[in-house]
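Try this one yourself first.
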């Protein structure tokens, strides 16, 4: 069986978000998986990325966070809380992120988790950089081979987050997290599990959601991930722009999804196996 890390960000243990986290723990363990939970509010996680993240400083006079992050990761000068979360990520075969959608993004405490844990040399600044290879990112990287999924209760109605919805499609809203924070260091990103009208749910609605959620968890290691294009897979030119013959005529983020008829992506001599969307 597999190892699953749940990174949970909600201040109320009796919330629907926390209830989904509890369902995930119960279901995954019942299926034989090992589970760890980073409950950020319960841990009183420090969300601020600042000078206190380093036990020793490369430059004690001026804080350049990127440079200090790189030095601390390479030299063992990170604080213990950061290193512990990195160890959990390396242990995990899949990572679930459980949080409510607040102002079109994640709660500040979870953003602070990414800011601090995704250090230089761990989640970015990885791999060879030259004119043809822009580092190991977007499909490659330290976290390659792991799956990730967002569990996102949302106060708004589903039509508001549809393709013509006033809030934008849920894929567009979650793009910075799914593509920018999870696919960037190499994770295979599963379609999210959004729960709409979360603050107006009755018992029948909760039963339906719980059943659907358990089904998704049962297929966590079976279902296809979102077919994002790998940066170094041959679909982007030397300036990291999608080649003009690709993208199916789209000028939105959907151009960055592999489509039927696209050439296979090759990364470091290996064909990237990914589901293709119908054109």
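Now uncover the answer:
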């Amino acid at each position: 069986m597999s190892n699953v890390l749940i990174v949970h960000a909600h201040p109320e243990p009796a919330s629907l978000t926390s209830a989904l986290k509890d369902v995930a723990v119960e279901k995954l363990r019942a299926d034989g998986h090992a589970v760890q939970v980073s409950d950020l509010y319960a841990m009183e996680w420090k969300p601020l990325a600042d000078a206190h993240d380093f036990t020793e400083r490369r430059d004690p006079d001026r804080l350049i966070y990127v440079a200090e992050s790189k030095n601390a990761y390479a030299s063992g000068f990170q604080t213990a809380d950061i290193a512990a979360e990195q160890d959990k990520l390396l242990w995990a075969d899949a990572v679930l992120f459980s949080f409510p959608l607040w102002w079109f993004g994640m709660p500040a405490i979870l953003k602070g988790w990414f800011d601090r844990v995704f250090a230089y040399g761990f989640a970015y600044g990885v791999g060879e950089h030259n004119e043809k290879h822009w580092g190991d990112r977007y499909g490659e990287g330290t976290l390659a081979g792991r799956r990730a999924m967002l569990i996102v209760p949302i106060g708004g109605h589903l039509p508001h987050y549809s393709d013509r919805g006033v809030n934008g499609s849920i894929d567009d809203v979650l793009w910075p997290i799914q593509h920018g924070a999870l696919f960037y260091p190499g994770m295979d990103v599963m379609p999210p599990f959004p729960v709409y009208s979360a603050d107006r749910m009755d018992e029948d609605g909760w039963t339906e959601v719980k059943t659907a959620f358990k089904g998704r968890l049962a297929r966590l290691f079976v279902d296809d991930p979102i077919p994002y294009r790998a940066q170094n897979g041959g679909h982007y030119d030397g300036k990291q722009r999608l080649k003009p013959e690709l993208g199916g005529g789209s000028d939105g983020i959907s151009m960055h999804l592999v489509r039927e008829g696209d050439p296979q992506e090759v990364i470091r001599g290996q064909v990237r196996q990914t589901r293709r969307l119908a054109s």
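Discussion: The beta strands are 3-8, 34-39, 94-98, 147-153, 188-189, 193-195, 265-267, 270-272. The helical segments are 16-30, 40-43, 65-75, 80-91, 108-117, 170-183, 203-218.
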